[in-house]
Every structure is written in structure tokens, then in C-alpha cells.
Design the sequence.
């Protein structure tokens, strides 16, 4: 496995741990629908939280969350709609981004952007 894949997996694992420590219940990881993948689907209270994890080894060029494009949002929203229908979830959904960067010591820092985008932004 390539180094960037290892880093991405480590970042996603850190995001799951962060969410669990903050009271989220993880329902699914890496949910796929057609060309889309949702990194983490969680639940907190009555909300379904659709979470995109973005990790970068440096923020010199772009912050991780800035890499979530309109086309990526469309794919995530499409996959989220499919998930909600497939599993008969009538809960309200929220779309979050977790941005992961290493600090100078190599520890991962997490920024949780709550309600980062809305479904209608995808059109």
C-alpha cells in the first residue's frame, strides 16, 4: 500500500476515534454508492452525520477541507440519499468535514467542521 494510502487510513482512524470520544456512534465506514464514497456515517442524537475526512501531509498549498469540491459534494449527497433510503433512515442528515494535518511532531491535528455544506449546495 502506498504511503499516502497509509496516511489516509491513519487519518480516517483518528477521525473515527475523535467522533466516538465526542459522543458520536459510528454506523458505517467507507460506504460506497456508484462512484461515491462516504468516509464515515455516524449518529448523534437524532441526526445522521455524513462525514468526509480530508487529510494532507502539509497545508502549504491547500487546507484539507478546501479540497472538497462541488463535484465531490454532489457525489457525497447522492450516496447519502441512497444510504438513507436503503436503510429506511428518516432522520435529518448533516454534512461535516474532518480536516486532518500532522503537527511538527507528527501527531495528527483534527479540525471538525460541523454542517460544512448542505445538500442543496450540490446543485
Sequence:
Amino acid at each position: 500500500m502506498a504511503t499516502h494510502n497509509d496516511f489516509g487510513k491513519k487519518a480516517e482512524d483518528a477521525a473515527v476515534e475523535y467522533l466516538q470520544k465526542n459522543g458520536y456512534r459510528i454506523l458505517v465506514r467507507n460506504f460506497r454508492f456508484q462512484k461515491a464514497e462516504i468516509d464515515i456515517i455516524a449518529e448523534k442524537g437524532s441526526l445522521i452525520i455524513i462525514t468526509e475526512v480530508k487529510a494532507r501531509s502539509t497545508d502549504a498549498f491547500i487546507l484539507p477541507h478546501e479540497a472538497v469540491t462541488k463535484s465531490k459534494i454532489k457525489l457525497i449527497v447522492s450516496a447519502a440519499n441512497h444510504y438513507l433510503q436503503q436503510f429506511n433512515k428518516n432522520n435529518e442528515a448533516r454534512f461535516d468535514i474532518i480536516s486532518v494535518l500532522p503537527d511538527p511532531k507528527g501527531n495528527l491535528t483534527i479540525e471538525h467542521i460541523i454542517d460544512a455544506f448542505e445538500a442543496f449546495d450540490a446543485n
Remarks:
- The chain has a mean pLDDT of 87.
- The domain at 3-122 is CATH 3.40.1350.10 (Trna Endonuclease; Chain: A, domain 1).
